[in-house]
Amino acid sequence: MQPRTLLVLALVVLALGAFIFFYEKDLPSTDERTAREKKVLRLAEDDVESILIEWDDQQVRLERQRPATETGEGGGEGEDAGTSESSWRITAPMSARADRFTVDGLMRQVADLESNRTLEDYDPGELGLDEPRARVTLQTTSGQEVLQIGAEVPASSDMLVTLAGSGIAHQVGSGLLDELTREPGEWRDKKLFEGTRSEVVAVTLTGPGGTVELAGQDGDFRLAALDDRADEEQVNALLSEITSLRAETFLDRTPLTPEGMGLDPAQGTVEAVSKTGTQPFRLELGHPREGTEGVYYGRADGQIFELETRLAELLGLGVAEWRSKSWSALQVFEIETARFEDSSGVLELSRDDADWKRGEDRVPYSSVSDLLYPISELKGERIVDREEAAALGFDLENPELRISLTFEDKGADTDEDTRGEELLALSRAVEGRVAATADGRGAVLLVTEAEVGGIREQLQRSRDAEPLPSEDSNTEEAPEAAEETGKIESPPE
Fold first, then answer.
1. Which of 111, 369, 379, 22 is nearest to 234 (CA)?
2. Cα–chain center distance at 224
3. Which distant-in-sequence residues (6+ apart) come within 8 Å of 259 by Cβ?
């Protein structure tokens, strides 16, 4: 046979092999085909839009709530389109958010329902399918499927089911029936707030302490009434409380009235707005349950329940008690440069990888961190406004120490980092107290002279710190040092 003929045949065989490989690689295996043929329903879980469950005199309707990015509302384009998970809601016999994991569990059971045996010529009355014990209606994107559940199979753990209009009965495991016939209220989601703390952009508290409005993101919240920074620790505690709220017990049947539970009118309310743009979450808090500590009556999304929370304590705080007592809003790791100006002159510090530079000199990291930590951690014993501070004798216009701290500011509407600046100042001491101010805040923090003395002491140490040897000088001096230690030989004279 000619070489050219052999080459052509080889190419044909390779082409045929490639065709078979790519044609069959996505085809199901024999085991997969067998398993698929045993399925009672052949549907994709994500195609189901609603579920109607009927048994005895009970009905539960569950409807899928797709996010705006999936349905195309609000544009539907961009990197985040279609990435959010859909949720479920009970629309009958009540209106409430459904537990997504419970509904997803039901969907898996229905989708995975396998036929152990099929019957085509049967009497529906003999199999209990003329009056089914339960019925599940699945509305999908392509139509409707109705699964009817009949009698139990004697001497087994199976039951009989059929798809309406199919004319075929299937013998399947009976575990699905227990899932279907749970009480309607058991489909509800006990997690009250749907979202994460990073998604919260505004919170309004109304209670014994008055009305407190907080707005911001990622722990950086401000008080609307005072146009001032909110206390970061208290805001974090509030967000943790909101995002972990959970109904301990739903009170569908109780002799208590909403008035008796302190819910009409409510003793306090919490409203949280999420950046996802959904309806604000609103929780009404009532009286504590008698004989308990920290367990209260609550109402949200039309449901009344008992919950364990410390929100009552936070609702008792007035707006002034939410003001931040921290002098600086920055953590040490966020600071890129620091400039200090006092009667001794100007000191400028800037990050240099793992170290700091003082002008052109590299200085030990510890000498700078020991200065920046007391600044970032300084808290006021008392907060006053500028008029009251002036009346107490503090000269805010001529501070003894001015500090400028710069940091990388991640803009909310841009992916680019920009340099932000925080300006701080310390006044002269008056009767053992010093006024600490921050640019952009009307609040004046009164701190002890001893705390300020520690900052001034560390400032002087940073000024006096011995420079670290430069890498160039280490390289240049290395041969001389080696010669002195006898590690290399001197060149011959």
1. 379
2. 24
3. none
Smallest Cα–Cα separation from 452: which of 392, 386, 389, 377?
377
Bridge partner residues of 377 (DSSP)? none
492 CB-side CA count, 13 A: 0
The predicted model scores a pTM of 0.77
pLDDT of residue 27: 46
Class for the domain spanning 332-468: mainly beta
Task: Summarize pLDDT for 387-422 with one digit per residue, the tens.
Answer: 999 999 999 999 999 999 999 876 545 555 688 999
Q: Which two tokens mark 477?
A: 């001096």
Amino acid at 133: R
What type of residue sits at position 455?
I
Residue 94: both structure tokens together: 């009540």
The pair of three-digit structure tokens given for residue 490, joined into one six-digit string: 């001197």
8 A C-beta contact, residue 134 and residue 151: no
Strand-pairing partners, residue 76, are none
Domain with CATH 2.60.40 in the chain: 332-468
CB 148 within 8 A of CB 164: yes
Q: Is pLDDT at 30 greater than 60 in this prediction?
A: no
